Amino acid sequence: MSAEPSCSSNRAPATGLREVGWIYRELGVEPFIQCAGVRTIYGASNPSDEVIAAMNAAAEAFVDMDELADAVGAKMAALTGAEWGVVTAGTAATLALATAACIAGNNPELMLRLPDTTGLANKVIVPADQRFAYEQSIRIAGAAIVSVATVEELSAALDGSVAMICLVGRLDGKSPVPLREIASIASAAGVPILVDAAGLSPGKPDRWTESGADLVVYAGGKYLRAPQSTAIVLGKKNLCQAIWWNGAPHQAFGRSMKVGKEEVVGAVVALDRWINAQSAKDERDQWLPRLRRIERHLTDIAGVTTEIMSWAGSVTAIRLKIAWDLATIPFDAEMLRLALLEQRPRILLHDFWSTPTSIIVDPVNLSDDEAEIVGRALADPFRRPASIAREVPPQEAAVDISGAWHVEMTFLHGSTTQQFDIRQTGHVLQGTHKAGETTGIISGEVCGRRVRFEAAHERIPIWLFYSFDGEVSDDGSLIGIVRLGGTAKEHLGPVFKGQFGYAGWDASRRPYRAGPERTIARSGGHDDERGKRTKSS
C-alpha cells in the first residue's frame, strides 16, 4: 500500500501493510466508515497529512510555551487579519477561558478566585433563540447565564453586571439579537462579544471580527482537520492573551484545559492550510463527487429517492438525503443505522438528522473508495428489505402498572428517590416522571411482563432523557436498567439521549413521600450475566 498522500483520500494512509484502523482493533474496538459529519463523539475528523507532519516535527524539540503562544498569536493574525489568535483545548474550553478572561482579565487576585465571582461583573448574555448545549462551560467559570429576546432587552441588561455576550454563529443570521445590531451597543458599554462559530469556516478577513465581534472561536478538529482536541480563537489581542494566561501551562483557572506544543503547531498549520493551500480546496471539491458515487447505487431502486441538499451556514453546504416509502421498504432509519453498524465494514450514519423514513449522508470524512462501499452497503437493504426488517409478533400486556410508584435510582456513584405516575391503556403507557428538580412526560409500552418507556424532561438548553427498561417482579415491583442522556432540541436522537451512561432502578407501588434528594453512595444492585438488573441480597 502506498504511503503517499492522495487527493482521493482525506485520511492518513495505513502504516506499512497494516489495514486502516488496526490500532483500534488491537484494543478490541472496531472502527467504522464515517458518514455522520464531524461530531466529536465519533472523533470529528482526521488531521491532514500536513498537520501530522507538523506535529511530528514539533515533538522533536522543546520550546517555551509562552514564547510559542506569542509567535502563534502573531501568525494567526497575519493569516486572518484579526488582531491576534490563540490555540485552546477545544471550543468548550474556549467558552470557559473566554469567560474567565472577560471576568478576571489577568488580575492574579481575581484569576485565583474563579469560579468565585462574588462582587464581580459575572453575567453572560445569550439571546433567547441562541441558547445552546455548551453553556455549562460558561457557568464553570462562575458566570450566570442571562437570556434576552430583543435588542432593547439586551441594552437594558447592560447595567455593569455583564462580563460578556455570547452569540452562536450559525444562528445569528435569523436572530432578533444579531451581531450587526448589537456590536456598537456592546462596545459602548465595554462588554466583549464572543461568537461560537465551532462548525463554521475561518477566512481572511474573518467575517465575525470584521462585523464587531471581540472574539470568535472555531473548532480545530472539525472541517479544518487540525488536532481533534483544539480550537482556534481570533480577536482582540488583549482578550486572546488573557485567555492564554488563564489557561495551561499557568496555575490559574484553566490549568486543567491543557494544550500541548504539538497541538498548538498543528492547529496553526491547519488554519494556514484551510485558508491558503490548494490541497484543502481540492479536498472540498471532492465532497460532491463522493455523494454522487453513493447516489448512483440507489437511483434505480423502487421506493427510494435521493436529493443533494444545501444546508445554509454549513461549511459542507451539501449533503445527500435518502428517503424511502415505508409501504415498499418496511424498516425505519434507526433500524438501518443499527444494521449498518453491525456489518463489516461498519458504517456510521447520523441519528438526529434522520426521520423515520430518511437519512442524511455527510461526505466530509469519506474517501472515494469508502463512498463506493457506502453506496453498495445502502443499496443492499433497500433492495432486500427483509434482511433487516424483521417483524416481531405483538405481545399482549400481562400486567397493568397504572398508579403511583416510589422509585429508587442507583447511579455509578450516589442514588436518588424519584416518582412515577403511570396510566396504562392496553399495552400503551403514559404519565409523568418526577426526578429531583424536573418532571418529565412518560411514553412507552408493556409487552408481557416487560416494561419499556422514555421520560422526556424539557429544559433549556438541554432536555433530559431517561429510557427505562425493566420487568415486573413476582412481588409486583419493577426492576431494571435506565439509560441516561440529554440533548438540545435540535439534536434529538438516540445517541445523545443515552450519552450519560446507565443506572439501575427499582420501583414499588406505594405512596410517594417527598424528601430531600439523596446523593450519598449506597450499595446498589448489579447486572447479572444476562444483562438484567437484579436486587442486592
Description:
The protein is α+β, with helices and mostly antiparallel strands and 537 residues long. It has four domains: 1-29, no CATH class; 49-280, Type I PLP-dependent aspartate aminotransferase-like (Major domain) (Aspartate Aminotransferase, domain 2, 3-Layer(aba) Sandwich); 286-387, Aspartate Aminotransferase, domain 1 (Alpha-Beta Complex), CATH 3.90.1150; 403-534, Lipocalin (Beta Barrel). The protein is built from 16 helices and 22 strands. The chain has helices at 22-26, 49-58, 65-80, 91-104, 108-111, 136-139, 151-157, 179-189, 207-210, 237-246, 261-276, 278-285, 287-296, 333-342, 368-383, 494-497; strands spanning 32-34, 84-88, 123-127, 144-148, 162-168, 193-196, 215-219, 231-235, 304-310, 318-324, 346-348, 358-361, 403-410, 415-425, 428-434, 439-447, 450-457, 463-472, 478-487, 501-508, 526-527, 533-534. The strands form five sheets. It has an eight-stranded antiparallel barrel with strand order 13-14-15-16-17-18-19-20. Helix 2 (49-58) packs antiparallel against helix 11 and helix 13 packs parallel to helix 15 (368-383). The radius of gyration is 26 Å and the shape is globular. Mean pLDDT is 91; it is low at 1-9 and 514-537.
